[in-house]
């Protein structure tokens, strides 16, 4: 399942305060000694530079806890198994692109999707991100806007498609519904750069239904790997704006949202027609019937293709296991009830009746970042900012 960002903005607090809190948590949960010495070291580093550098162990632990405390994710029972790749020393577009490709390869794992996070250089005080990725996920399909206002492909990606065209990308001569968007990567030293996604690393699944042969004629498909790339990892007061990560898909993320939503691929009516349903009135519940069939197709197709996929009921039950584990450990369960209950058969899900989540959003955590493209407020780094980065590089 994909991880969803917090609905709140990250707190703007004292870096030293957050650092001390995180270091105590790290040493306590890992049962390590020496916290006083490490705190003193970090305080001194912050006093001189305004920030500090995590050890490799602290970074890995912080990334895992960020997932554990991500209030909108139902799949957190697996938090301890997250593979964290420390790539803080990779700071060029070419190097980042190479690591993103490696991330796809490792996370795909032959279809047995595993959770991976790749963490690049942290943000700097007074300067901001050292690197960032414009795409909201590493694998997305274009939204081609026609002259008549219609969209071929994913309407959610129209703005991003326009943005990459503005950077010089040329769409296929005959635009399709599932054309891969290129990546846009920028660093403190390099302008936004187009990077073609390695096509051989993108696994896709054609959607079919076990009971309805006509479903295949809809020619629907989806990619196997949801790698979120527009969220900021915050650990102990330090932000990492370039830290793409993935889980594996939950069926209704594809079946209900991507395929069913009117503002996405909008497939409810075509499926209802294939089923011969009465769509003239809402009280026939034709939409509910159609979306259930699409979800069945997603589960069937991914399992037939040998690609890891979860259903809402199993994940809801596993989330209750996670809640019990956290309570035994003496930790509050942070959760957004409206996000933890899926959109298919939600009334029967185990977590529906579990309403005592702690609604605060603690750090470490994952935070939604502003969209980089299409806004003057989040324009690419200016030349002056790049000079500032170069000037401050040695100090940090």
From TrEMBL:
The keyword Heme applies. Residues 15-369 form the Nitric oxide synthase (NOS) domain. It comes from the Bacteria. Keywords: Heme, Iron, Metal-binding, Oxidoreductase. SUPFAM superfamilies: Nitric oxide (NO) synthase oxygenase domain. InterPro entries: NOS, NOS_dom_1, NOS_dom_2, NOS_dom_3, NOS_N, NOS_N_sf. The keyword Iron applies. Transmembrane segments: none annotated. This is Nitric oxide synthase oxygenase.
């Amino acid at each position: 399942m994909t991880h969803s960002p917090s609905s709140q903005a990250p707190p703007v607090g004292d870096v030293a305060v957050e650092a001390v809190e995180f270091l105590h948590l790290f040493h306590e949960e890992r049962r390590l000694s020496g916290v006083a010495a490490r705190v003193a070291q970090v305080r001194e580093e912050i006093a001189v530079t305004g920030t500090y550098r995590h050890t490799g162990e602290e970074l890995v632990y912080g990334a895992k806890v960020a997932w554990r405390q991500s209030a909108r994710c139902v799949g957190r029972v697996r938090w301890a198994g997250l593979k964290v790749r420390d790539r803080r020393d990779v700071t060029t577009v070419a190097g980042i692109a190479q690591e993103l490709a490696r991330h796809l390869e490792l996370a795909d794992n032959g279809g047995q999707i595993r959770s991976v996070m790749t963490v690049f250089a942290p943000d700097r005080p007074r300067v901001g991100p050292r690197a960032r990725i414009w795409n909201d996920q590493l694998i997305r399909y274009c939204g081609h806007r026609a002259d008549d206002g219609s969209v071929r492909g994913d309407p959610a990606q129209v703005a991003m498609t326009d943005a990459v065209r503005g950077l010089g990308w040329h769409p296929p001569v005959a635009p399709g519904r599932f054309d891969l968007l290129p990546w846009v990567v920028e660093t403190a030293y390099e302008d936004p750069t187009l990077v073609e996604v390695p096509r051989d690393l993108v696994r896709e699944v054609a959607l079919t239904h076990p009971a309805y042969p006509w479903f295949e004629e809809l020619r629907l498909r989806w990619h196997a790997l949801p790698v979120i790339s527009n969220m900021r990892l915050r650990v102990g007061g330090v932000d990492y704006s370039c830290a793409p990560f993935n889980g594996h898909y939950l069926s209704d993320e594809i079946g209900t949202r991507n395929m069913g939503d009117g503002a996405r691929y909008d497939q409810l009516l075509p499926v209802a027609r294939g089923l011969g349903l009465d769509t003239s009135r809402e009280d026939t519940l034709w939409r509910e019937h159609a979306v259930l069939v699409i979800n069945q197709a997603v589960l069937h197709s991914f399992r037939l293709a040998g690609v890891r996929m979860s259903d809402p009921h199993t994940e809801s039950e596993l989330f209750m296991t996670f809640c019990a584990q956290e309570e035994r450990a003496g930790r509050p369960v942070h959760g957004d009830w409206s996000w933890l209950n899926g959109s298919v058969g939600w009334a029967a899900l185990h977590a529906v009746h579990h309403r005592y989540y702690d609604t605060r959003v603690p750090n470490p955590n994952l935070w939604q970042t502003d969209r980089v493209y299409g806004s003057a407020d989040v324009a690419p780094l200016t030349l002056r900012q790049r000079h500032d980065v170069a000037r401050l590089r040695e100090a940090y």
